[in-house]
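Q: Please design a sequence for this.
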């Protein structure tokens, strides 16, 4: 039975974003990156501006961090930190190519997070691998964030953390394989997780949406929900249909140029949770 749209309630959010002024693919640190293929930076900026305007039209606040020419991946703001309850945790990247982003994001979060900012000691890649759901945090490992970092996140942010192991290198961050909609509903690609991870997701979220590989490869799961509207890749049509069935309002946009760097809509969006 299709849920009525009135069942879902949007909540105003606060996001941090970084314009892809210097976006490029200069190296390969995930399977999506190919430095031999030219990047259309103007197109990436136009798609990003569409996303920022959409967030504002939906009633959300968009904060900005200045892009730096030496950091082509800085547009992926979700990897820049994790903010829960006004408290921010910085990041420590696995690959040295992105380590220059750590300090700029730490400084920016220090101005945005009312509860202070904390520097991590272990490898964690922010909201790329740590997704708050209700009173808990789902944490990814396997390719980027260290499993030991999960305990550090739990201690600093004072939330229980549930570990999930990723097994498909195409879905190297948790936010490429799992999407959070509200306090008790997620969507995920089962094949992206090991047996224990699939079992844990099923136990925690019995009504979870299982997404097809085709929609996941289109970065459909790298989406942003405000509780009612879900902004997602336009190509993830099957996923969008299921969201409508569940009472959400999916909004598909083109964001494929940023996918050349291995990121999508959620990667470009860091939520500042007060």
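A: Design:
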């Amino acid at each position: 039975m299709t849920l009525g749209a009135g069942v879902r309630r949007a909540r105003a959010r606060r996001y941090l974003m970084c314009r892809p002024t210097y976006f490029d693919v200069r190296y390969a640190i995930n399977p999506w990156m190919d430095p031999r293929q030219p990047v259309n930076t103007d197109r990436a900026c136009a798609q990003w501006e569409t996303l920022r305007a959409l967030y504002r039209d939906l009633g959300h606040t968009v904060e900005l961090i200045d892009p730096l020419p030496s950091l082509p991946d800085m547009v992926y703001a979700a990897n820049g930190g994790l903010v829960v309850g006004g408290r921010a945790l910085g990041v420590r990247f696995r690959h040295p190519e992105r380590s220059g982003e750590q300090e700029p994001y730490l400084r920016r979060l220090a101005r945005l997070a009312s509860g202070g900012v904390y520097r991590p000691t272990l490898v964690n890649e922010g909201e790329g691998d740590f997704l708050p759901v209700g009173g808990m945090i789902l944490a990814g490992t396997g390719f980027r964030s260290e499993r030991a970092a999960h305990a550090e996140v739990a201690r600093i942010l004072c939330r229980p953390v549930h570990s999930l192991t990723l097994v498909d290198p195409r879905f190297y961050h948790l936010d490429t394989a799992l999407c959070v909609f509200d306090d008790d509903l997620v969507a995920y690609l089962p094949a992206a997780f090991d047996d224990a991870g699939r079992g844990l997701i099923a136990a925690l979220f019995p009504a979870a949406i299982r997404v097809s590989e085709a929609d996941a490869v289109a970065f459909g799961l790298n989406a942003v929900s405000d509780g009612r509207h879900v902004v997602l890749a336009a190509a993830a049509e099957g996923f969008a249909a299921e969201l409508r069935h569940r009472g959400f309002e999916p909004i598909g946009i083109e964001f494929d140029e940023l996918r050349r760097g291995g990121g999508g809509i959620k990667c470009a969006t860091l939520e500042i949770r007060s």
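Q: Thanks. Anything notable?
A: Helices lie at 41-57, 102-112, 148-157, 195-204, 213-217, 237-245, 256-259. The longest strand covers residues 136-141.
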